[in-house]
Specification:
Layout: E1 2-3, E2 8-15, E3 21-30, H1 34-49, H2 51-60, H3 62-78, E4 86-90, H4 93-103, H5 107-112, E5 120-123, E6 126-130, H6 131-135, H7 139-153, E7 163-165, H8 174-183, E8 188-190, H9 195-208, E9 213-217, E10 221-226, E11 240-243, E12 246-249, E13 252-257, E14 262-264, E15 268-274, E16 282-290, E17 304-312, E18 321-328, E19 332-339, E20 344-351
Parallel strand pairs: 3-9, 7-8
Antiparallel strand pairs: 1-2, 2-3, 4-6, 5-6, 9-14, 10-13, 10-16, 11-12, 15-18, 16-17, 18-19, 19-20
Helix pairs in contact: 1-2, 2-4, 7-8
Length: 353
C-alpha cells in the first residue's frame, strides 16, 4: 500500500519460492492521500473567512501559503487518535490581515458567526482547534482507503491476503495507521521506519534487481489501430473509409495485452498484419492504451496514444506481412515489428518509470 501526498495506490503481491514477487492485482486507488486532509482543512478556513478572502491570500502571499502547507504536514504526522484538548496550528498573520482589510471585521467576529464558534480560537497567527475537529479532517480519505481495501479483499485472486505493508509519506500518519489497523484487526500491518523514504529506496533496489517482480497484472489494455474490411452490422458508419477501392473501418483497437491479464516478464503477445495495398513504402503502427478491458476504437475518450513504430517496406508488387510482438520488460513495454520478407526488425520502448 503506497499512500503519499496526492494518492493512495494499492497493489497486491504474492511472494514466490525463489524470493520473487508475483503481482496478483493491478495497482488501483484514488486521490485519497495526505493532500485530501489539506483540502479538508482549507475548506474549514473557507467556511470561516470566505472563498474570496482565501483566494486573495493565496494569490498575494505565496510564501506564507507554502509555510501553512508545511505546518499542516507536521501536524498530520504528529496528531494521535487519542489526542484530546486543542491542537495549535500556526496560521500566517497575512491571512488575518487579508480578511480584516477585505471585510472590515475582526477575525474573532468571523469565528463567532461560523459553525466553529465554541470549537476554534483564532488569535493573531495561532489557531486553537478542538482535537475532535482536526481529527475529523482525516475521516474522508481514511474511509475511502479502507473501503477500497475491503473491496479488493473480496476479489477471488487476492482473498486471504493477511499482511499489509504501508509506505509513502502519508503512511506515517498515526490517524491513518489507526484506521487501517482497526478496520482489519486480523491483519498484520507493517509500517517501516521512515515510510516516506521507502519508495525511493525501493526504486534504487529495483534498479539493481529488476527481476524481483516476475509477473505483472496489466493496468491497461495495450494494442494498435487497424483497418479491417467494413462490416455494417458491427462497425459505426462514421468510421468507414475507402482504401484501394475497399471499404474499411478505421481506428479499430487491435488488442494485444488486455487490462487485468497476468503477463510474465518477457512474455510476448504476437499477431500478424498485412499491408493494405501493394507497393506500400511503410507500415505505421500506432500504440494505444485504454483502461477498458475491451475497447472497440482507439479514438474513444479514455484511450491514450503512446507512440509509434514505423516499419519500412521493400519494393514489392505483393502485400507484405508484418509480425508484431508486445511484451513487458522489467520497467517498460516493448513493441517489436518484424517485416517477414526480409526479417528486418523495428522496436519501440515505453517506459513505466
Amino acid at each position: 500500500m503506497y499512500v503519499t501526498g496526492g494518492t493512495a495506490d494499492i497493489t497486491v503481491h504474492e511472494r514466490q519460492p525463489d524470493g520473487g514477487l508475483r503481482e496478483l492485482h493491478k495497482a488501483s486507488g484514488g486521490a485519497w492521500g495526505g493532500t485530501k486532509v489539506d483540502e479538508e482543512f482549507y475548506m474549514l478556513l473557507i467556511k470561516i473567512i470566505g472563498g474570496p478572502v482565501w483566494n486573495k491570500f493565496m494569490e498575494e502571499n505565496t510564501s506564507d501559503y507554502l509555510d501553512l502547507q508545511r505546518e499542516l504536514e507536521t501536524k498530520k504526522r504528529t496528531i494521535k487518535p487519542e489526542s484530546g484538548g486543542k491542537i495549535t496550528i500556526k496560521v500566517p498573520i497575512t491571512m488575518v490581515q487579508t480578511y480584516e482589510s477585505e471585510t472590515n471585521e475582526k477575525i474573532s467576529e468571523a469565528i463567532e458567526g461560523s459553525n466553529y464558534k465554541d470549537k476554534i480560537q483564532w488569535i493573531g497567527d495561532k489557531m486553537r482547534i478542538e482535537a475532535g475537529v482536526f481529527k475529523s479532517l482525516f475521516k474522508s480519505c481514511s474511509e475511502k482507503i479502507v473501503g477500497h481495501i475491503k473491496e479488493l479483499l473480496q476479489k477471488p485472486d487476492v482473498r486471504g491476503t493477511n499482511i499489509f505493508l504501508m509506505v509513502g509519506g502519508f503512511s506515517e500518519s498515526l490517524m491513518l495507521q489507526d484506521a487501517v489497523m482497526k478496520s482489519f484487526p486480523s491483519t498484520k500491518v507493517i509500517i517501516p521506519d521512515e515510510a516516506g523514504l521507502c519508495v525511493l529506496k525501493g526504486a534504487v533496489i529495483f534498479g539493481h534487481k529488476p527481476v524481483a517482480i516476475t509477473s505483472r497484472v496489466s493496468k491497461y489494455t495495450y494494442g494498435i489501430n487497424i483497418s479491417p474490411p467494413f462490416d455494417p452490422s458491427i462497425h459505426q458508419d462514421d468510421h468507414k473509409v475507402t482504401v484501394g477501392g475497399v471499404d474499411r473501418c478505421r481506428d479499430i483497437f487491435k488488442k494485444y495485452i488486455m487490462e487485468g491479464d497476468t503477463v510474465q516478464v518477457g512474455e510476448a503477445r504476437s499477431g500478424k498484419h498485412v499491408t493494405l495495398k501493394a507497393n506500400q513504402k511503410e507500415m505505421l503502427l500506432k500504440i494505444f492504451a485504454s483502461p477498458k478491458r475491451d475497447p472497440k476504437y482507439v479514438d474513444e475518450d479514455d484511450t491514450e496514444y503512446l507512440g509509434k513504430v514505423v516499419v519500412n517496406m521493400p519494393d514489392s508488387e505483393e502485400k507484405i506481412r508484418v509480425e508484431v510482438k508486445m511484451m513487458f520488460g522489467e520497467t517498460e513495454l516493448t513493441v517489436e515489428a518484424q517485416e517477414l520478407s526480409t526479417h528486418s526488425k523495428y522496436r519501440a520502448y515505453f517506459d513505466f518509470l
